[in-house]
Specification:
- The structure holds two protein chains of two kinds.
- In chain A, 68% of the residues lie in helices and 4% in strands.
- By secondary structure, chain A is mostly helical.
- Chain A has a domain at 2-61.
- In chain A, strand 1 (206-211) and strand 2 (214-219) form a beta hairpin.
- In chain A, helix 1 (2-12) crosses helix 4 (54-61).
- The longest helix of chain A has 35 residues, at 298-332.
- The relative contact order of chain A is 0.07.
- Chain B is of the alpha+beta class.
- In chain B, 67% of the residues lie in helices and 12% in strands.
- The chains are: A mainly alpha, B alpha+beta.
- The interface between A and B is medium-sized, with 20 and 18 residues.
Chain lengths: 336, 114
């Protein structure tokens, strides 16, 4: 009877190979049991309709997990998904904007290029986000299915059925301790941008002046001398990036975070002070240019140099110390 | 159908689902095949849908509460199920749990009526 075959096929189609045959045989004999001895097509229809939707029966038979990510992992999945997608989109945006700096628009570019660049930026961000979401999902599916025996072994991914005691309770974070994610995202983009400029286009750092022929840049730094500092700049930028990701994830100040944060800003401060004190790092021509530009005498500018360096160093120290104290006070704040 | 009725419907399905295992185990001290079990339960006024019962039998077998055997002596081969040793133990225990539970519930629901 064709209808019976088609019904059975619909039930067993999605089942694992090793149970298909047995279910087929059993279902067939059960259906035939339900039919009268000399049955007509009408009888078959009645019986099959009584059995109901074959896909529903198939679902009852199905021994495999009928979901990608189960309820125990679901909320963890969403937390991690938002986190990773957020970070990846930020970094992708930063890298794209960096690309703009490395290849600045030339003069002939029409405004339509800006629109194009902008839509390209959006598209890249969306793509990055989708990629990240895909991989996070795959990892969680793997955990759910224990593909690589990784269930529950990922740090911070605690399972609902894990043993639990009162000491595992999280402290309620005080709102004043919060590190806003928008700020962190801004810092990530700014750091990547700044590092890229120092690395690839250091001549852009300087004084800009506009005249009838367009922009002129009076570069501040001696590019050859700058090379010596690049490894430190790179390492500190990397350090900062890791720190930003950490801040993005935990979102609240704590003592360990503060310690690393302070080490990073002290190192950056030291690097800045060493750099401004390095006389050969600043182009000699820069003073000439600036003297000309602002129509002050060269000797005046050079005389001011020591003062400027000292003021700059003092500002760096004050900002670093103030920032460290501010962050420290935030870590000490009691939760409301 | 209004939403209250729908809600009652789906809650009833959930409530009943829990009793199916006990119902099926109770009838399998002697071997039965799918359709004979359906008829038996129907006679006892505890009908269960065929589409629910057949997969359930298989699941219980996989959990080793039931044993099965194909009988090919008759014109139509039939798969017979019967309680395993473990199945018997589980059934006795479940039955006691059910009796306690239903007594507790009955007492509580009686209080409510006063």
């Amino acid at each position: 009877m064709e209808l019976i075959d088609r019904y059975i096929y619909a039930v067993i189609e999605q089942l694992p190979e090793d149970m298909k045959e047995d279910v087929r045989k059993e279902l067939r004999s059960n259906i035939e049991d339900m039919l009268p001895d000399d049955y007509t097509e009408e009888d078959v229809k009645a019986v099959l309709e009584e059995l109901g939707n074959p896909w529903k029966i198939a679902e009852e038979y199905q021994p495999k997990k009928r979901y990608l990510i189960g309820p125990t992992l679901y909320s963890k999945y969403f937390t991690v998904l938002k986190l990773v997608v957020g970070i990846v989109m930020t970094v992708v945006a930063a890298v794209t904007i960096m690309g703009w700096v490395l290849m600045p628009l030339t003069e002939g570019d029409s405004p339509s290029n800006y629109a194009e660049m902008f839509s390209e930026l959006l598209w890249t961000i969306v793509q990055g986000g989708l990629q990240a979401a895909l991989w996070v999902t795959l990892v969680f599916v793997a955990i759910e299915r224990e593909w690589f025996g990784i269930r529950g072994k990922i740090e911070g991914v605690s399972m609902i059925d894990d043993p639990w005691s009162v000491s595992d309770l999280p402290t309620i974070p005080a709102h004043s301790k919060k590190i806003p994610r928008s700020g962190t995202i801004f810092s990530i983009i700014f750091t990547m941008l700044f590092t890229a400029i120092v690395y690839f286009q250091p001549e852009l750092i300087g004084v800009f002046s506009k005249d009838s022929e367009g922009f002129t840049i009076y570069s501040l730094l001696e590019t050859d001398r700058l090379q010596a500092y690049l490894p430190f700049v790179f390492l500190l930028a990397l350090f900062q990036m890791i720190l930003f990701v950490w801040k993005y994830i935990v979102q609240y100040w704590n003592l360990r975070l503060w310690t690393v944060h302070t080490i990073a800003s002290v190192l950056i401060g030291i690097l800045l002070i060493v750099m401004v004190n390095d006389t050969s790092l600043i182009r000699d021509a820069f003073f000439n240019d600036v003297a000309q530009l602002f129509q002050i005498s060269l000797s005046n500018v050079v005389n001011q140099r020591d003062v400027i360096v000292r003021v700059f160093a003092a500002i760096v120290v004050v900002i670093t110390v103030w920032d460290a104290i501010d962050a420290f006070l935030k870590t000490r704040k009691k939760s409301a | 159908m209004n939403s209250t009725e729908e809600l009652i419907q789906s809650l009833m399905v959930e409530l009943k689902r829990g009793t199916f295992v006990l119902l099926v185990l109770s009838q399998l001290h002697q071997p039965e095949y799918g359709y004979s079990l359906i008829q038996k339960l129907e006679e006892k006024n505890a009908p269960i849908e065929a589409g629910t019962l057949y997969p359930l039998l298989r699941r219980l077998e996989k959990q080793q509460l039931l044993k099965s055997e194909w009988d090919t002596t008759e014109s139509r081969p039939r798969k017979f199920y019967i309680l395993s040793e473990q199945g018997k133990q589980v059934y006795e225990q479940l039955k006691r749990e059910w009796q306690t539970l239903s007594q507790q519930l009955a007492t509580i629901l009686m209080e409510e009526n006063v």
